[in-house]
Amino acid sequence: MNFKVPFNRPFIAGRELHYITQAVRQGHLSGDGYYSKRCQQWLAENFGVRQALLTHSCTAALEMAALLCEVGPGDEVIMPSFTFSSTATAFVLRGATPVFVDIRPDTLNLDEKLLEQALTPRTKVIVPVHYAGVPCEMDVIMDLASRHDVLVVEDAAQAFFSTYKGKKLGSFGQLGCLSFHETKNIISGEGGALLLNDPRFVGRAEIIREKGTNRSQFFRGQVDKYTWVDVGSSYLPSELIGAFLWGQIEEAERIIADRRRSFDAYLEALRPLQDAGHVQLPNIPDGVSNGHLFYIVTDSLQTREALSAYLLGYGISAIFHYVPLHSSPAGTRYGRAAGELPVTVATADRLLRLPLFFGMREEDVAYVTGRLFDFYCPKGKGGCGGV
Ligand SMILES: *Cc1c(COP(=O)(O)O)cnc(C)c1O
Fold first, then answer.
1. Which of 136, 184, 245, 250 has the fewest beta carbons under 10 Å from its own?
2. Superfamily (CATH) of domain 252-376
3. Which residues surround ligand 1 with Cβ inside 6 Å?
4. Which residues of the chain have pLDDT under 70?
């Protein structure tokens, strides 16, 4: 379908194609070439972590994290149910059990107040997911995790350049996972990165990523031949991905600023609908969002469905999020819910994501918000804050 305003539009920010050409000319197309290394150095410096490793996806980074945390059958991993399947399946692949916790109604992030009661002697890891680039309460989560000797793996797939109390998301936990999927803020088609904050994981992460070999040490001259030393898989992307990604990363500030402009324009324009009690808008209590995703929460499933059909009629693509994992076919098989998850269930029924992408024009945002006002406040009727 040809949308007037699509939900997402993959983009070129600057010199991506030029760098791909350069990479081809340099004759190094497998992983960890010149551009991949530049990306990794930049990520490590900008996020303030010990090491950053590019991966094929955030899912791959989460899988590496699960291997590094050495979870296995019987171990439990606490995470929200309101998230993408990757958060859970990375740990399920190791035989661990996801324990799904409810979210906060204001931020739609894992409710830190419910963590204590979800902990058991089998809990090994907590996975905060920064939904929509909105930060989880990291002070509370890190403090609780260290008191209970539990690791923290941040699913920061949506959170590139968001901050919590001035510090970048993905840099709080022992491990952090980023996504460069074409729907995220910074893109390479498919792609991701594992951020390593804890020195104990640094050497082993390189080995797991290189098919269980110590090839990275060999290339640095630290061993005189390389061999199979540990479990692992192939998690490193080709240099073509690294070259494309470098073209995005060097424009990161501009890309994020562009998204934030559209995000702020939505927030500003739709506030009267929130004041009139029609919708709930994003709320960012303790940080700065990266403008990843703009959502509204309607009053009911019926309204959400009617609204998305209405917008579709005007060529606007607006999409729900997520089927909660605890009630999904695989979630019921492999995981368990920590009690009732009323906020998760109610949110999943009522949330609608609006179009937001790099290069979205002011008039696109105005077109979408205009149709929302038409829907909620048909001419002649009041109740929309004087609009
Ligand atoms: C997009 C996303 C992922 C998966 O990222 P990929 O790079 O596509 O593997 C994982 N978790 C969350 C919360 C996401 O939004």
1. 250
2. Aspartate Aminotransferase, domain 1 (3.90.1150.10)
3. 57-59, 83-84, 86-87, 129, 155, 157-158, 179, 181, 192
4. 380-387
